[in-house]
Structure prediction request, 282 residues.
Amino acid sequence: MAPLLAALLALLCPALAFDMGQSTRCVAIPNQMRVCQDVGYSEMRLPNFLGHSNLESEVVPRSEDWRPLLQTGCHPQAQAFLCSLIAPVCLDTFIQPCRSLCVSVRTSCAPVLSCQGHSWPEALDCDRFPDEDDMCLSPHPKFTLYGKDLPKPACQNCPSVEHSPAMKTVLDSFCHNDFAVTAKIRRRRVPSAEPEFDIEGRVEFIHQGPLLPYDTQHLLQQWLLINLKCSYSLVRPGRSQLYVLTGEVQSDGKLGMTHIFPWHKRDLNIAVATRKWKHHRC
Prediction:
């Protein structure tokens, strides 16, 4: 979390205000600037809209600091919004994000930052951006209803983690929750282009409830990346660990975890509970 915090604190600095009247230059987006590699253009303008002018010491490292937020999938246009500021397209005119795009991204992503202990940066105050009467980057219509009816992971207090539970405890959790799954979770030891927390292999359903097979693996990974404090306490770096996870989907579509059972080879009670579940009466 330290790199992301450093990025947010840097954004709050008044010295980063951008002057539209200053001279600028166009440079190629460097390969190491991975968060903006697939935005649809290859050249960016420096200084950028956050006032950064040095690629190696400012632009690239601070762009990478935003990757943990983008990996949560908090908004389908979050990358376009952020890259329009850190790596603005090099055209004859300045193209900023529209105020409406900022508001849309802020609405979805600010709660994720809050969950991770940070507020929406003042430098990204949506009032500073132009309205749609001007030339600016606007929200894409096809994204307005994206994933509307699918469950969405919620920021929450850390769920109960129980080691070596009794069989009754596991069966009661299956009964009192909307879904129960088994999944292998891995935490990478070193920074990479991939998310630090990963659902490895297939997610197996014990009790499917409202979850959809094609969406569940991505949904659980989003939960891990949004609830980083819980994830850090749950998963050690290194080898993947098998878990049984149970949870609920609220009426507003928000998904939350209620119980997590690390499933080790010695945990016979979990194995017996999963076998008995098919014929168990709650």
Q: What stands out?
A: The two ends are 42 Å apart (CA to CA). The domain at 2-143 is CATH 1.10.2000.10 (Frizzled cysteine-rich domain).
